[in-house]
Amino acid sequence: xxxxxxxxxxxxxxxxxxxxxxxxxxxxxxxxxxxxxxxxxxxxxxxxxxxxxxxxxxxxxxxxxxxxxxxxxxxxxxxxxxxxxxxxxxxxxxxxxxxxxxxxxxxxxxxxxxxxxxxxxxxxxxxxxxxxxxxxxxxxxxxxxxxxxxxxxxxxxxxxxxxxxxxxxxxxxxxxxxxxxxxxxxxxxxxxxxxxxxxxxxxxxxxxxxxxxxxxxxxxxxxxxxxxxxxxxxxxxxxxxxxxxxxxxxxxxxxxxxxxxxxxxxxxxxxxxxxxxxxxxxxxxxxxxxxxxxxxxxxxxx
Amino acid sequence: xxxxxxxxxxxxxxxxxxxxxxxxxxxxxxxxxxxxxxxxxxxxxxxxxxxxxxxxxxxxxxxxxxxxxxxxxxxxxxxxxxxxxxxxxxxxxxxxxxxxxxxxxxxxxxxxxxxxxxxxxxxxxxxxxxxxxxxxxxxxxxxxxxxxxxxxxxxxxxxxxxxxxxxxxxxxxxxxxxxxxxxxxxxxxxxxxxxxxxxxxxxxxxxxxxxxxxxxxxxxxxxxxxxxxxxxxxxxxxxxxxxxxxxxxxxxxxxxxxxxxxxxxxxxxxxxxxxxxxxxxxxxxxxxxxxxxxxxxxxxxxxxxx
Amino acid sequence: xxxxxxxxxxxxxxxxxxxxxxxxxxxxxxxxxxxxxxxxxxxxxxxxxxxxxxxxxxxxxxxxxxxxxxxxxxxxxxxxxxxxxxxxxxxxxxxxxxxxxxxxxxxxxxxxxxxxxxxxxxxxxxxxxxxxxxxxxxxxxxxxxxxxxxxxxxxxxxxxxxxxxxxxxxxxxxxxxxxxxxxxxxxxxxxxxxxxxxxxxxxxxxxxxxxxxxxxxxxxxxxxxxxxxxxxxxxxxxxxxxxx
Lengths: 302, 306, 244
Prior knowledge:
The structure holds three protein chains of three kinds.
Chain A: H1 2-7, H2 43-75, H3 82-120, H4 127-165, H5 168-174, H6 179-218, H7 222-225, H8 233-259, H9 265-297
Helix pairs in contact in A: 2-6, 3-4, 3-6, 4-6, 4-8, 4-9, 6-8, 8-9
Chain B: H1 47-76, H2 90-130, H3 136-174, H4 177-183, H5 188-227, H6 231-241, H7 244-270, H8 275-305
Helix pairs in contact in B: 1-5, 2-3, 2-5, 3-5, 3-6, 3-7, 3-8, 5-7, 7-8
Chain C: E1 2-11, E2 13-23, E3 28-32, H1 39-46, E4 54-59, E5 62-63, H2 69-76, E6 79-82, H3 94-105, H4 110-123, H5 139-151, E7 157-161, H6 169-186, E8 189-193, H7 197-203, E9 206-211, E10 214-219, H8 221-225, H9 230-237
Helix pairs in contact in C: 3-4, 3-5, 4-5, 5-6
C-alpha cells in the first residue's frame, strides 16, 4: 500500500534532503513541530531539524521497501536474465571506476601516512601491517562503498525514476508485476553479490598501490610491507559485515529514491541527486555503527 | 511531456547541438546508440576494442570539459566588447550561492560529525596498541584537514549540488529552455553556467572550512569515551604539531575539487539529450566523472603540495 | 459494469470532488473535459493505480477501494491500459513489449505468444516490427504499439488515455476506428479519454464530461451535441464565449 500510493503522488521528496524546489512551503505534519504551518522554518538549526525529521520518515519508508524486498526475494517470480543483467550493470560496469579511484586513494594514503609516521617513529616496518589492518577493517569497504554509492546509486535511481515518470512502473503494475519484485529485487541481489566482490577487489587494489608507493617513495621492501600479522579474525568479520551492509543499503536507498520520483525530467534529476546523497550518507552512518559495534565485539589487543 | 506528446513542428535546421528533435526524428534514424545496450550481446573477445572505446570516450569528455573551461574563462575576462566587465549575471550568482550553500550545509554537517567520530573509532586499535594517546589530536587533525575532510565533503557536495546542477541544466536542455535563451540573444554560458560554477567553487571552499571544524569537534568528542583522551589534550596535540600549511593544503584541494565538480556537472548537464531518461543518465555520468576527477586531482595535488 | 460513487481525490489541491460515473457493460465510453479536469486521474483510479481519498469504485460489482495490493493485482489482470505517454518498456523490443502482459498474466506458450503478437502488430498496421526498439519509433508508431499492448490480453475492460494526442488527423481517425472495431469484436467495456472531440464523438456509444472534478454530463454523442447546459455546449462545440 505504501509505495503504490506514493509512486504517483506529488508529495515532498522523502529522505534526508527535502529540496527547496519540491517541498511545498508548509511541510504539513513532518515539519509541524518546528514552525507554524504557514511559515517555512528558516535558519540553519531549523533546516537541520527539518532534515532530521524528513530523515525519520524516510527511514520508515526504507524499512518498508526493505521488508518487501526480502519477502519477494523468497516468494517473487524472477524474469529470466534480469539478475545477470543487473550483475553486469552493477558489477562489471563499475570495475574500472572502482579500480581507478581506489588505486589513487591507496597511493595517497600510504604517501601521507608514512610521511607523518616518520616524524614520530623512524622505523617504518609496521606501516604496511597497520595499513593492511585498516584496509581490511574499514578503508576497502567504506571508501569503496562511497564510490559505489555514487556510481551504482545514481544508476539505479536514474533508471527506476525514468520508468516512474514515463509511466512504465504503472504499466508493470497493470501486468501484476510489483515494482519491488520486478525492479528492486534483481538490483538488490545483484548489488549484494557484486558489492562484496568489488569491495574485496577494491581492498586488493588499494593495498597494492599503497605497497608500490611505499616501495618507490620510502624504500619499504614489498615483503616487509605486505605483513598480515596485525590482521585478525575480528578485522575480517567487521570488514565483511560492512561489505554486506553497504551492498544491501545502497540499492534499497536508491530504489526508494527512484520509486518516489514525481514530475518530469526535473523529477528524475532530483531522484538521482537524492540517491547519491542518501546512499553516501547511509554508508557513513552504517560505518560509524558497525565500526563501534566491531570495537566492542572484538576489543583491540594491547 | 516527452517528445512523443509535444506538438510536432517541422524540423528546422538548428544549432549543431539541437537537442529536442532527437525523439521526433526517430522514424528514419536507427535506434539511438545512447541506449545503454541492455539486451545487446557482449563478448569477452571484444575486450581490447571495448577498452579502446572506453578510453576514447574518456578522452572525449575530458576534452569537452577542457573546451567548456576555456569558454567559461573567456567570459570571466573583462573584454572591450562587454565594456570591460565579466559576463557574469550577479543576480543569478547570488541565487546560486544561496542555493548551493543552503542545500548542502545540513548534509555536510551530518557527514562531518560522523566522519570525525569514525576517524577516532578507526584509530583506536592502533593508538591503544602503541599507547600513543598523546598524538591522537595530531593524527585526527592531520587526516581531517589535509585529506578526509576535503575529499568527503567534496563527494557529498558532488552528490548534492553537482548532481542538482546537472539535473537543472539537463532539464532546461531537454525542455528547450536553453534554445529559448539563445533566441532571446542571451548567452546560456554566461547567464546560467558561469554563476553556478562560481557559486559552486566558492561554496565548497566555505563548506570545507565549516566541515573541517565540525569533524574536528566530532573527533574530539569521540576521543574522550573511546580512548580516554580529554578534550584539552586532544586540541593541545592538534595545535602543537600542525601548522597553517596543513590547513592551506586542504583548502587549496577544496578549490580544485570545486572546479572539477563545477565543470563536470555543467558539461554533462549541457550535453543532455533524450527526455527524462536522458536527464537521469546525465546526472549519473556527471557524479561518476566528478568523483573520478576528484580522486585523480587529489592524487596529483597531494604530491604537488607535499 | 463500472460504477464510481462520490469519488474524491486531491493532489495538494482537489482534483476530483464527488465523481459519480456509470459505464454500462459492453459500451465504448468517451470521457471529455477541459485540461487538468482530472480525466487521466479517473482512469488511474479505475485501474487501481491511484487510491482515492474518498468514495468507492465498483468493477463488476467488486469494490476495489477496499482491496489490498494482491487482490488489486487480480482485478488489474482483467484491465488493459493504454498510457498517455505509452509507457513502452524502453529496454524491451516491440515484440517483447506487446508480449509482456501475456507472459506475466497468462500461461500462453511461446508459439502462441509469437502468433498473437504478430496478429496484434498486423492489426495496428505495423507488421514485422517485433525486433525494433521503442526508442527508434515515431510518436504515432509508439502510440499504436501501446494500443497493441493494451489490447493483446483481450481484457473485459480497456482504458485508453489520449490514444490520439499529438497525431495527425488521418492517423488519429485510424486509431479511433481501431479502438471501436476492437471493442465491437471482443464486446469489452472501454473508456476513452481524448481531447480529439470530433473523432471521439463519432466513435463512442456514450460520452461523459468532467468539469471541476464532477460529472456534468452523461449521454449519447447526439445528446452531447444537442446539450443545452452552457458549459457542455461551449466545450462540445468549441466556442470561445461561455462559462469556461
